[in-house]
Every structure is written in C-alpha cells, then in structure tokens.
Amino acid sequence: MIITVDGPVASGKSSIADTIAQRLGYPCLHTGLLYRALGYLFTQTQALPDITKLAYAYDKGKTTITYNTQDITPYLTDAIVGAITSTLSTQKEVHDLLYNHFFKPYAINHDFVAEGRDCGTVLFPTANVKLFLTASVQKRAERLLCDTRRHVTSLDDAIQDIKTRDHNDQTRALAPLKPAHDAIRIDSSLMTFEETIEQCLAHITHIK
Fold first, then answer.
1. Cα-based distances in Å from 40 to 49, 119, 169
2. 113 SS3 class
3. Which residues are within 8 A (CB) of 142 and not within 5 positions of it... i.e. 6 or more apart?
4. pLDDT tens digits along 1-42
5. Residue ranges in the chain whose pLDDT is less than 70
C-alpha cells in the first residue's frame, strides 16, 4: 500500500507522515528532504551532485541522507539551503533526476508513506490513499514559530513567510501544490495532533 501525505508548509505533514508510518510499520519517504539534499550539495559545489552517491535511509522513525557515505542530514534545515532548494525544485532537470533515481524505483514492491508537495499528484499518482493536510495561516504560523529549526523569530514574520511560500508553491509551473482530484482533505486547524492522526488512520483503514 502506498499512502501520500501532501500539504503546504507547516501543515504538519512531516510529523503526521512519520507517525502514520510508525503505526503501520511502514518506511516513510520525505521527498522534500531529498530536494534539500540536492540544495545543500549545490551550495558546496555550485553544481548538481552525482546522484548515484546520494542515499536515503529510514529506520525507526529517523531519516538519514548520506552523500558519498557522509551523513548530511543535519545540514538540510539551514535557511540558505531552503532558499536554494526553492529555486532548484522548480527546475525540470532536478525533478527528473530525483524522480528517476529515487521516487520511481521506490514505488516498486514497497508499502510506504510518502510526504511532500506533489506526492499524490505527480510522484505517486496511483497511490492507494492520498491525504492532503492543511490548516489556517494563523495556525501554521504558530507552528512555524515553535519549530526551532525554522529560524523564525516573530509571528508576523511566520505569517508573511507562509503566505509567500504558499503563493510560490501554488503558482509554480512544475508540479504546483494542489490536492489530487481523489485526495482526502483534512483541515487540522481545530484538531490536536492525535486527533489528526486518528482521522488519517480511519481513512487508511477504511480503504485497506
């Protein structure tokens, strides 16, 4: 079974996907981290890396990304890496590189959860369950502010950051952010984390 979890920034999709994967005993594929890995490596050499040296591992709820056997995971949340990644992810060459080397092969004989911006629409369009998570801008801004990895210092900055990124993600030409036509939309604005998990699992169990 393939389960996709898509949504805008700070919608909780990464944590939700991790928890769903752990409860089902599945691996979780964080597609955005692989884009960030290319972004980080690009900042080091100003060129796209040798994709064959990039490796993704998921074990007991922990994602590890290595390049040439070196763990680069700790560097992927840097703000500069995020900015570079936003630009690179709009390029077809980058998208095709990751799709052909990671995403397409990953879908063969795997039960897994995949999270990102276009998992249900582009990367895994035949997924068994497609979840699209969202929440109000205010709620997502509050979550962004609480995430120490994001380097956001005020609620106003968080709100502006979210609005800008939403606009960029939704209007980009390549794989724009949008729910798949058969996605199950879940608004977690008024739900706790556990309530959101239970609702997601209820949809998954119903389809299984």
1. 10, 22, 20
2. strand
3. 155, 158
4. 999 999 999 999 999 999 999 999 999 999 999 999 999 999
5. 148-150, 208
CA 119 to chain centre: 8
Q: Around Cβ 47, how many Cβ atoms within 10 Å?
A: 8
Tell me the two tokens of residue 69. Answer: 């056997």
The overall pTM is greater than 0.85: yes
Contact between 6 and 120 (Cβ < 8 Å) = yes
> What is 2-202's CATH number?
3.40.50.300
3-state secondary structure (DSSP) of residue 1: coil
Q: Would you state the structure tokens that stand for residue 189, as one six-digit string? A: 């604005």
How many CA atoms lie within 13 Å of 134's alpha carbon, on the beta-carbon side?
13
Contact 197, 15 (CB under 8 A): no
